[in-house]
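# step 3/5: fold
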Amino acid sequence: MNNAVRDGKWPRPMFHELKSRTIGFLGFGAIARNLAERLAGFHPEMIAYDKYPNQEMADKLGVKLVSQEEVLKKADIISIHLPATDETKHLINQETLNKMKDGVYVVNTARGSIVSEKDMAEALRTGKVAGFASDVFETEPIDLSGSLFGFENYIATPHVSAETYENCETTSVVTAKAILAVFDGKEPEHKLV
């Protein structure tokens, strides 16, 4: 819309409110929970799949824990928050895309290997997926001749979703404290596997 107005146009598209949508989280760790907390004020239905579910946090945030299959089938918007593993490589592919609602929106800020870019491009071409946004890519830096870049309903950002001054400061402090703890023979307070 910003570009249209700057071009002297005045389009009047219609949108859905989030309160009439189902948001599905694939992975429900700290980042997904943080997003769910922010979305709560818009009153969508929120469902999540996680291999190691935290029922207490889901209940606190008003998120229903369901199977991965149910997230794929019921969500109007799918937000991916999974690690890159052999199990998640190309988890979003032709087969799983076919299980999704027609007109689904997919957002991947997790890892590029989770989405088959070739299969996503086909889903965008056919309209199965109404829009795809990614901050991560199968290959970085990206190849602009890639199959996704020909679609207007594709949003790409350069792997910067965590790039804030505050996050850099917090990460630096947590890392320094963890190193000091290890040198003192202690377990770090914030330990990632």
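# step 4/5: annotate
Strands lie at 22-26, 45-49, 63-65, 77-80, 104-108, 129-134, 154-156.
# step 5/5: archive (pending)
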